[in-house]
Design a protein that fits this description.
7% strand; Multidrug efflux transporter AcrB transmembrane fold; transmembrane; transmembrane helix; 5-stranded antiparallel β-sheet
């Protein structure tokens, strides 16, 4: 097929942006400022929704909401945990203070019912811990965090007597909404240091930082405003920031490195910008496309939270690509040769050619002994991947949260007072058959349901059954003997669903049941998601490089880097070899010995590996695209495969290494977040990128390309005829950009 003008379009876009740099810069800054301001003034709510349509937990939730009203909706119940360290809550002064607090709580908007801690089951056996249960009606679930804060403030009368009052609801704003801040600053500073070392000039180092910050501000503004129309997971902003900051700096780094090389070769500003965007810009578009494809494939995961998290995180990648191919050339056009201004004195004047020669020497060294390098690389990667066999999945509850948060404190108090299962009660809802309802057998059904639920192994307590007003449904709360993160709690869910009550259909809901259903759904859909991601990414590489071998090999290499990431997660969290070293606190109930604070196991939520797979597969493909682009450019020039591999590694080695260092620094910085989920992502992403940029791109990929020889670029004739020639290398721009010197000289002469 004919050549599609991808690189030509990108070249013209970059040239236009360079000529109109002030306009492009003003538009991007205005967009970032307006969207950031709008997100602050009209911030959309975050969602903790883990329900999955079509599951038993969702049916229980729907039946509870429809049959018992909004007051029994899990999103309409808030608990305030009371703890009196100086004596029982039954002392008269404390009783009066509790009742005053309940009166204040009733004045909060949307409060329909306030249940006293002095009811049956409301006080712990020690009498020092109690629960005020608040049922809401007519409230906005998107503003539940704000309502929870108001309810907590209304408990001031008990705090005046030294009684601790902690909201136990999962939407406490200070604890559950992940905010950005310190880790981003640390990540940016580390990235700046790497860029200073890579470029040696302050001006060049600041361009990737500036464009990435503009990209993130724009993306986060869009994501925040989207909270008004879709359920945005609380993890969305942090994931978007992690990925957006990493790829935003990396993409700008790739473009900037190419531009500086072209300037050093004597090209004028606009000609260098045009050729940069035409060649490296095409690689950026394809690299970003693979990340977006991988994240979009999560729509097939069958888990609404994961689906939304995937496409919303993709927004940050789209912004990174757009700023790279528009804002970066605009800045380059404005700065011209001043890109090399403010050179750091201690960096000296390193020559790009000398640095490339060093990496080319590594490529040549690998080319001389490909079998040995291949064997050693496989052995190292196998050792890194082996621990992944011990990876343990399970619900990650607040018992593993940061000790300084209200969520962790309420979890501790409830477990101490009522047992570990109180933090994840099972909601058993039974819908009654019409013929049973007509005979009004309520007492018998209620009694039998309670007996059957209480007989399930692992159930510690069963509350009194409640019949709805229409007599069509029965609800009972069952507390297990296990914490929500305990795998045995999931077994209780399955056993509870197996009970049979004549004339009734039993469904089990609650947080533990919902996560159990989520795990099952994700396990069923994982092969589909993995297959689609690998297939579409390989297809994109096939379009880019017109080589089935390159496409298939790239997909396999990315899977290898994923294995290393999962191996690291297993070592740190599943085997507990350093979970305390990444800042996690031991779970509730663990002793305070020194070893326990450093080494303890942590379950990994079932959706995290699939999310990590999508993100890492896309990020790993970035480096593959940039390396293969350079190798193919060299191969098309002279046709020598071994020489092309060495030259490709020489042209991209320093850039890929710098980009990987930036990514690793950003991801490691996010491990400082108190949220366990963020720590898990930070460890997995950092290890995978480090392994991918060193062992895989530095040794394994060059070795395999040398061994495959000319077969790397083989393409069947029938396939070559039907594939569009996208030409991301930008060869057709060589002649166009070569015209730029003559044009600029003419302009200068008239000036």
């Amino acid at each position: 097929m004919g050549r599609l003008p991808m690189s030509g379009l990108l070249g013209r876009l970059g040239s236009w942006c360079a000529r109109h740099g002030k306009i492009v810069l003003a538009l991007w800054v205005a967009a970032a400022v307006l969207l950031t301001g709008g997100s602050i003034a009209f911030a959309g709510p975050v969602s903790n929704n883990v329900t999955i349509p079509g599951t038993d937990a969702q049916r229980a939730h729907d039946l509870m909401r429809d049959g018992f009203g909004p007051g029994y909706d899990p999103g309409g119940t808030v608990q305030i945990v009371l703890y009196s360290p100086d004596g029982p809550l039954t002392f008269q002064r404390r009783v009066r203070a509790v009742h005053r607090a309940m009166d204040e709580i009733r004045r909060v908007p949307h409060v329909a019912e306030v249940q006293s801690p002095y009811r049956v089951g409301g006080l712990a056996p020690s009498l020092e811990i109690g629960l005020i249960t608040v049922r809401l009606k007519g409230h906005d679930n998107g503003k539940l965090a704000e309502t929870t804060r108001m309810l907590s403030e209304a408990a001031a009368p008990v705090r005046a007597l030294g009684v601790e009052a902690v909201p136990a609801d999962a939407s406490t704003p200070a604890d559950k909404e992940i905010k950005t801040g310190t880790s981003e600053i640390i990540g940016v500073v580390c990235a700046l240091l790497v860029l200073l070392f890579a470029f040696g000039t302050l001006v060049a180092a600041m361009i990737p930082i500036f464009t990435a910050l503009v990209s993130i501000a724009t993306g986060l503004g869009v994501i925040s405003l989207l909270g008004h129309v879709v359920d945005v997971p609380k993890q969305a902003s942090i994931m978007a920031t992690m990925i957006g900051l990493g790829v935003g700096i990396d993409y700008a780094l790739f473009l900037l490195s190419r531009y500086r090389r072209l300037l050093a070769d004597g090209l004028p500003t606009h000609g260098a910008v045009r050729r940069t965007v035409a060649s490296s810009g095409g690689a950026v578009v394809f690299a970003g496309g693979t990340v977006i494809i991988a994240l979009s494939a999560l729509l097939l995961g069958g888990f609404p939270m994961l689906q939304t998290l995937g496409w919303i995180t993709g927004i940050s990648v789209v912004c990174a690509v757009l700023t790279s191919v528009t804002l970066v050339p605009a800045l380059l056009g404005l700065l011209g040769h001043r890109i090399n201004a403010l050179r750091l004195p201690f960096m000296g004047r390193r020559k790009t050619a000398d640095e490339a020669a060093g990496w080319s020497a590594l490529g040549a060294w690998v080319s001389k002994r490909p079998w040995s390098v291949l064997a050693l690389s496989v052995a190292v990667l196998a050792a890194l991947t082996a621990p992944a066999l011990a990876l343990k999945l399970g619900p990650l509850d607040d018992g593993y949260g940061d000790r300084d948060t209200a969520a962790r404190r309420s979890y501790e108090l409830m477990q101490a007072g009522f047992g570990p299962g109180i933090n994840g009660p099972l909601i058993v809802v039974a819908s009654l058959d019409e013929r049973v309802v007509d005979r009004d057998p309520a007492p018998a059904v209620l009694r039998l349901l309670k007996e059957e639920a209480g007989a399930v192994e692992g159930v510690a307590h069963v509350g009194e059954p409640v019949l709805n007003d229409g007599g069509t449904a029965v609800l009972v709360q069952a507390v297990t003997a296990y914490a929500p993160s305990d795998p045995r709690a999931l077994e209780v869910v399955e056993d509870m669903r197996a009970i049979r009550v004549p004339g009734a259909r039993v469904h089990v809901g609650g947080e533990v049941a919902a996560m159990s259903d989520a795990s099952a759904r994700i396990a069923d859909r994982t092969p589909l998601v993995v297959g689609v991601v690998v297939l579409l990414s390989a297809l994109l590489l096939l379009l880019a490089f017109r080589s089935p071998v390159v496409a298939i090999k790239a997909a396999l290499m990315n899977l290898v880097s994923l294995g290393a990431a999962f191996g690291a997660l297993s070592l740190v969290f599943s085997l507990g070899l350093g979970s305390g070293l990444v800042g996690m606190d031991p779970p509730v109930g663990a002793d305070d010995s020194y070893l326990t604070t450093l080494f303890f196991t942590v379950p990994i939520d079932s959706y995290i590996p699939l999310m990590l797979f999508a993100v890492l597969f896309g990020l790993s493909m970035d480096y593959e695209v940039f390396l293969l682009t350079a190798v193919r450019q060299a191969y098309l020039r002279h046709g020598d495969n071994r020489r092309a591999v060495a030259e490709g590694l020489g042209a991209t080695g320093r850039v890929i290494t710098s980009a990987a260092l930036i990514m690793v620094a950003v991801f490691v910085a996010f491990i400082a977040y108190p949220d366990p989920m963020v720590k898990i992502f930070g460890v997995g992403l950092a290890v995978a990128v480090a392994v991918d940029a060193t062992v895989i791109r530095g040794f394994l990929v060059p070795a395999t390309m040398v061994l495959l020889g000319r077969f790397n670029w083989w393409c069947p004739r029938w396939l070559d005829r039907i594939l569009p020639n996208l030409s991301i290398e930008g060869h057709e721009e060589e002649e166009a950009s070569a015209e730029e010197p003559r044009k600029e000289l003419v302009v200068a002469g008239h000036g």
